[in-house]
């Protein structure tokens, strides 16, 4: 259903393509756009990655009617719903699925929720961010709705024409979605900046409870929530941090990663890692940056002892300024680095820690 745009240009000119589906071009399609955005939230606020999904909805069409879907339970859900209601001028309504079933990022019940809301709302588009949760949820919900999702969208040129990276980010592919509604997509939040437009005080979207009767129809679930293990840290979230300091296998041990953490404290930075460092057990998986980890695009990315494999570059090459420290002058990381230091990382780290003042 997702095909290279050029291949479909001829079919679209004729107004039809593939299994007899009808396509609308330009203005007529823009008028029919309505979008359901999956909104992740934390501490009573919609997460920045979901605000980026709203920016993507705006890129689809300026007159897009957007519904934001939030799930969970308790006061933080309702606080987040209020935040959602005034988060973007395009938000038309906020849908709240108030149940413990949605309190955790379990993709199976969430996929059923998405199917139910989509079937009632008939949206032309459904957007989630390419977070761990979004990547888990979207394909399942798409399968239930019998459509193919378009993943990792980085740019939107028409309501159904998208740019997405392929080959670990080494090429960009323009695709046209030719399937039935909804067009389901995950977006890279680093490619869509949340709006800075201030909201008029009168523009607060209504908050509506979602009908959850579909939950009674599901007799048993194959998954259940056990617990969440996460680092207790005051440092910024890796996916949204302005500065990221990353360590690779060159750090050699979990103990040495503590040096990186000290530097991160001083810089107010998040700590990242390569997959090799994660696999070696130096740091937990949630710190992994790359094709199969988090995608980051901070103002400053400092890499210590990272070789620069394409799978790692896929997760950080859009960083504004890249600094690399590696003892091997031929390491591929230097091909994308703005500043490179060829030398022993422990010497450089030690010097930085000595010279840099503590963060106030
Ligand atoms: C399907 C697939 C998905 C993958 N997804 C990811 C992903 O999401 N993220 C990811 O990172 N990788 C991913 N990988 C793994 C990737 O291919 C590389 O193996 C990995 O990124 C290498 O990590 P590294 O740079 O830490 O280790 P290495 O390649 O071993 O590099 C270590 C570097 O440290 C330098 N070094 C060593 N000691 C010092 C010192 N004292 N001072 C200075 N420099 C030093 C060395 O010169 C070397 O360049 C994936 C691989 C596959 C096949």
Instruction: Indicate the structural class.
Output: alpha/beta
The radius of gyration is: 22 Å
Number of strands: 20
CATH superfamily of the largest domain: HUPs
Shape: globular
Strand order of the largest sheet: 10-14-9-4-7-8-15
The amount of beta strand, in percent, is: 25-35%
Distance between the termini: 53 Å
- Biggest sheet: strands, sense, closure? 7 strands, parallel
What portion of residues is helical? Answer: 25-40%
What is the count of helical runs? 12
CATH class of the largest domain: Alpha Beta
- Outline the low-pLDDT stretches: 1-24
The overall number of domains is: 2
Average pLDDT for all residues: 89
List the ligand species: flavin-adenine dinucleotide
Question: Describe it for me?
Answer:
This protein is an alpha/beta fold and 360 residues long. It has 2 domains: 216 residues, HUPs (Rossmann fold, 3-Layer(aba) Sandwich); 118 residues, Rossmann fold (3-Layer(aba) Sandwich). Helix content is 31%, strand content 25%. The protein has 12 helices and 20 strands. The strands form 5 sheets. It has a 7-stranded parallel sheet, with helices on both faces. Helix 5 crosses helix 6. The chain binds flavin-adenine dinucleotide. The site of flavin-adenine dinucleotide (FAD) has 28 residues, from helix 9, helix 10, strand 19 and helix 12. One of its GO terms (cellular component) is mitochondrial matrix. One of its GO terms (molecular function) is electron transfer activity. Belongs to the ETF alpha-subunit/FixB family. Keywords: Electron transport, FAD, Flavoprotein, Mitochondrion, Transit peptide, Transport. It comes from Brachypodium distachyon (Purple false brome).
